[in-house]
Description:
Strand content of chain A: over 45%
Largest sheet of chain A: 22 strands, antiparallel, barrel
Distance between the termini of chain B: 74 Å
Radius of gyration of chain A: 32 Å
Order of helices and strands of chain B: HHHHEHHEHEHHHEHEHHHHEHHHHHH
Oligomer: heterodimer
Largest sheet of chain B: 2 strands, antiparallel
Structural class of chain A: mainly beta
Number of strands of chain A: 60
Structural class of chain B: mainly alpha
Number of strands of chain B: 6
Helix content of chain A: under 10%
Amino acid sequence: xxxxxxxxxxxxxxxxxxxxxxxQSVVSGVVSAEDGxxxxxxxxxxxxxxxxxxxSIDGSYEIEVPDDNSxxxxxxxxxVTREVxxxxxxxxxxxxxxxxxxxxxxxxxSFGIERERRSLGYSIQDIDGEDFSEARESxxxxxxxxxxxxxxxxxxxxxxxxxxxxxxxxETSLSGNNKPLFVVDGVPIDNSSTTAVANAQTSQADFGDxxxxxxxxxxxxxxxxxxxxxxxLYGSRxxxxxxxxxxxxxxxxxxxxxxxxxxxxxxxxxxxxxYQDEYGAGSxxxxxxxxxxxxxxxxxxxxxxxxxxxxxxxxxxxxxPRDSDGNLEPIPFEPRPGNVRDFFNTGNSVSHxxxxxxxxxxxxxxxxxxxxxxxxxxxxxxxxxxxxxLNAGYNLSDRFTVDGVINYAKTGSDNIPNxxxxxxxxxxxxxxxxxxLEADWLRDxxxxxxxxxxxxxYDNNWTNNIYFQAYENTNSMDKDRLFGNISTNxxxxxxxxxxxxxxxxxxxxxxxMRKAFSSVTAPYGNYREDDSRFHEYxxxxxxSYNNQLSExxxxxxxxxxxxxxxxxxxxxxxxxxxxxxxxxxxxxxxxNLSTEHFTEEKSIASVYGLTELSFRxxxxxxxxxxxxxxxxxxxGENSYFYPSVSTSIILTDLLDIPSTSPLSxxxxxxxxxxxxxxxxxxxxxNTYSYLQAWGSTQSVSDASTIANAELKPEITSSxxxxxxxxxxxxxxxxxxxxxxxxxxxxxxxxxxxxxxxYQGRYLNAGEIQxxxxxxxxxxxxxQVTNGLIWDVTFNWDRNRSKVIELADGIDSYLIGxxxxxxxxxxxxxxxxxxxxxxxxxxxxGNIIHQNGLPLMTEDVERIGNYNNxxxxxxxxxxxxxxxxxxxxxxxxxxGRLYSYTHATGIExxxxxxxxxxxxxxxxxxVMIANDGSYVKNDVAVEYVTYTRNYYDRNNIESNSFDxxxxxxxxxxxxxxxxxxxxxxxxxxxATFSLVGRNLMLWSEVPHVDPETAYMSGSQxxxxxxxxxxxxxxxxxxxxxxxx
Amino acid sequence: xxxxxxxxxxxxIALIPLLFVWGxxxxxxxxxxxxxxxxxxxxxxxxxxxxxxxxxxxxxxxxSVGNIVAQHTSKVLFGGNDRYNWQSFxxxxxxxxxxxxxxxxxxxxxxENGNDNYRxxxxxxxxxxxxxxxxxxxxxxxxxxxxxxxxxxNSPAYxxxxxxxxxxxxxxxxxxxxxxxSGMEVSGDILYDGDxxxxxxxxxxxxxxxLMRISDKTDVSSDMQEIINNPSTYPVFESVDxxxxxxxxxxxxxxxxxxxxxxxxxxxxxxxxxxxDELNDIDDPRLNVFAEPTDVSTEAGExxxxxxxxxxxxxxxxxxxxxxxDQSRMxxxxxxxxxxxxxxxxxxxxxxxxxxxxxxxxxxxGDAETYYNDGxxxxxxxxxxxxxxxxxxxxxxxxxxxxxxxxxGSQKWISLFFNGLEAWFDWRRTGYPVLEPSARNVNxxxxxxxxxxxxxxxxxxxxxxxxxxxxxxxxxxxTEMWLLDN
Lengths: 1043, 486
């Protein structure tokens, strides 16, 4: 199949290599810089054709032009592109001017409206599409890491489809919804991620979010509107910021173009736990394998590595040959370093994209086809994605245009591996996995003669055979997503226009989870299917008026309305046990099927207006207002109004600072905004929830959370102020923002003591404040006329949140409850505060011991916060002639990470901390003397006992670490074919890049990559690492051809 | 497909601004009505869930704590509970109160629609569940509890245990009056299949358990005697078929909870040395049900039972008597079959031992020896075992007036196997059998006598929690509640 695809691609490519038209005349000349130095490698194209060349070492060129009216386009990196009409000349010598950084760039803002950056009273940052497509991630969201100040992205380590966690300007929501709104071409898409919990265990598979369905090849640009200022027009969901994705279109092109991109990368483990190789499986220094469950006289099936030393002594083992009586023969008990690494593969990812685009005064189009196929590092794991997109517009008349964009993404996988704590999770298994094991011993994962019925494993108590888990207990998925919109634009007069748009997002997703017979948690196997469908429709119209009122005053004003409708359907069906092994069909269920089913609808109607007033292009004032009517709130309270105001002042123009001064541009901006928010459907009245039936007897339960018929909208308000200052013709830029936000009246399930009969009730309560700084420094430290340019961008941000108020009578609100601790919001604390049991300490801070062992507190205490103190990212781009070199560092300072791998690795005797086992330890600290005073602890206990107690898995203090890290996020080395060569090949450009992502990690956290998060349902709980899959690095190459 | 009726697309777009001006109805009330779940139900839909959840909760907590502290079983891995390193067992508290929410709802609905049998059943279950709670914790929210939705009591006050016991007994009395075998039919009854007489028997048997429990605190003689004397008004358990014991189903998810454990989790448990030694001493055939002979001895063709002492460290336990293969696990009944073991609430055997003790102490008129023998018979019958005739003539088994209370206590403890919470509650009162604190305990060589309140009560119901501590004493596992405070 793959080859057929490739064949089609190549034949299309070659079909387009048609010979160019006959030349009629030749033009030659020399290209130089302003200082007179000649420029080699300048691209020269005949406008509107594929004919082109480039200058040689001495700056000279020669090009054939079709006729005297042709226009030549001279372009060179770092210089302003010039168009020169031939007008019958045979020699054209020209000078190129060095490019000053653009001051009046256009940015995409709300509703896809392009505006001059200088006019904006709020901060917005954008990333160019090629930053996603060259060194790519299967989820484009991951590519934003380190590039945007104020945006925190955590790649959760949940595998291939991987839903990253994204938070803009700090966590505001007690109920855990901190996700920004995602908008593609002006229309929101649903980015909830789907995970499924493996039955009765907490390990789970992450099936990915909407962003994992977006094709990086189709992305023109991503803009981040960070505050509600920038987003008041998208309504409630934009309260946490907006990620605006603009896809590529054929607009602005002339003639027909074809682009082909191919990307191949290889993926390997970035960080794997450090396992010890001194001791093997067992308990109390004893081990011999009999049957794997510790019942027939052996010491096996313990799940521990507290066995004998791996010194080559002879022990009957799982991998032993059998003697003639069928008994296992003793073989050397030896270290098997790398036995875990041996299990993993080198992953790879191959993508092809072909797009055809074109445009003229009548209209434009772009058609794109992509195929991505990825094999993960876990054997038998993969991800496939096919994207089709069509973006087209047609000008029906001078005044009336129609545009449409449609994207179709088909995503599938045969297996998304589980992560987390439980028998289905591989990293969990490896923590309890015998250090004496050879991975190869487990490759034949069925017991002989019991194929399909009984797995072959060395431990039958706790874990599955790793290969059995990888090949039999698979989680597959099929997703179909269709999203896009159709819009019309009518210019009623020169100043008045009407836009109408209908947008749709449709997602249909089916996941299948299989467990084979003899699985530790499912002796008779298990099959489960989750089928979810989601639609969202948006209907907009917008009437806009735009006029230069006088020489000084400009006005643009718009009024519009939006109607949003969502529906969601979910059906889970499970065959809890199977009757015939290996057949995953509900007809094959041995027992009653169990199901879960719901449908849900929601709608919001809105009217809104905005005005932009400008005075002499120096002072700008924006006002917006919106009123929403939400179906989820009670009829008296379902209408809410929210306004925003922002202003921008160009100081350099106001004060008339000459452009020759070092200060080339200075702008001050300030804004204030408020956003209302609604809630989920059906929270206003109490219902009964279904329990699983007792045989054929159905049963229900009074819901444990009390509904509230008097909910009010949530309110987020925020202000921000900042400055954008540039020096030396824009070669050095400084942009700083301070923001302050508050979210109050949050709609929460406020906990009740269960003795009241209920566990919670929905209430408006709580207030969270966030404030922070964002700084962006950008510059071109080096720009020399020989063509060497060095661009650098530095991002820095720092956010602090504060819990101002919770509900009456509550001083702590539980946000997450992963293994080993909890995340709680407490009044005057910060969002992301981590609580758990710590060491008992005397008034001087010494650890208190009893019988030589450290004591833990009975109550939880705060150990730290999972949010980093600050983030910094630095991206560099060097360009020299045809070469470019980019690298991006991402640094996160501070914050804590609790590692379950660390705790359980020591508990199990599996990780390096337990490599030394001899001797005794006298714990540093105190003990309680008979008179109750604290005296120095002098009780010696065995080293092993001490270590296991000290690092008890419930001790959040000894198992958590400074989460700071530095990552080399990205490296790219690119080469663009000189235009002359390209012309000989009949293409307009060709770029070849070597790319790498996440190549290096510097961190003090042992065993795991600190960039990780535990997933509780589809919610991320950062700060807690619970046997997530190892993080990966990737490297490969990218080829881009434009024809 | 886009249905016009649903979202009136084009019209909507055009008319939205006007609609708002006119304040028109967007149809939101209908849109926001939950189409998935009912707003009102009949009691028959609540009863199955109540019974399953409450019995599951009892089984699970007997497995994880009750059986262990009662020394029916011991732990060889993750032995914190066996070493009395007790956290607050919020699962037990939450499970019971969550079920009581539905019990209280069932009571409300049956009161409204006049079905006295459902109402009676709800009172029996209310008494049983609250009795488990107060026996475990002491003072608890009772009269004020469960009212958050109906009357906004979000922070219920704690009642004194003595008052709670009075309330439980009053409810059982009322239940006995309400329950009428010729009254309205009951369905969804997965415990007694709608047999109201059995519910009545359970109500009165439970009364006798509770009365016996407070017999050291107050004179319960006339109350107990009244029940014994009037079997037509106060029927009690007469056969093992009357046992309040849930028979599970063979199909997931309604199997005996322990059956669904991972093998490794089940392997954390062993038969306790205390139990195995006691049953070995008297050649009790029930040992074959409660425990497995060691694998090594079975392979050698001479099956023998070896219990593991309570509270060993992991390494000690792994090597105890040689290896795990030389130790007795719990019986196959509890793990190998999904529906063989019952979820025990109260049995005929227990009732007979209650009456034997009451007779022996002259609280009621009657022959202690007969009740004692009936108790043993009922326990054997419950497990379908016929002991050798000489079992009953064993001097340690045959009723001996001189040490009758010890014998009754010991046999009752055996009959309560895997009803560990009740075995522990009862042991606290009688002191029989004499138990030694577990080997490596971290509780100063005391066997715990209560559960700690869940931490959620401390944070969410602080004032009332503090008030209860003031009355009852510190919230630790050694504080003696009213029942035990002699």
